[in-house]
Amino acid sequence: MLTWPHPGTDWFSRLKEVEPVFLAIARAVLRFENLLISCEHVFRAEQLDRELNAWARENGLPGRAHCVPAPSNDTWARDHGPITVQTSDGTRLLDFRFNAWGGKFPWEKDNALNHHLATAGCFGDIPLDTVDFVLEGGSIESDGEGTVMVTSECLMSPSRNPDYDRAAIEALLGETIGANRVLWLNHGYLAGDDTDSHIDTLARFCGPDRICHVRCDDPSDEHYPALAAMEEELRQFRQADGSPYQLTPLPWPDAILDEHGERLPATYANFLIINGAVLVPVYDVAQDEAALTTFRELFPEREIIPIQCRPLVEQHGSLHCVTMQLPRGVVEL
Question: Is the sign of the CA dihedral 171, 176, 181, 184 positive or negative?
Answer without folding.
Answer: negative
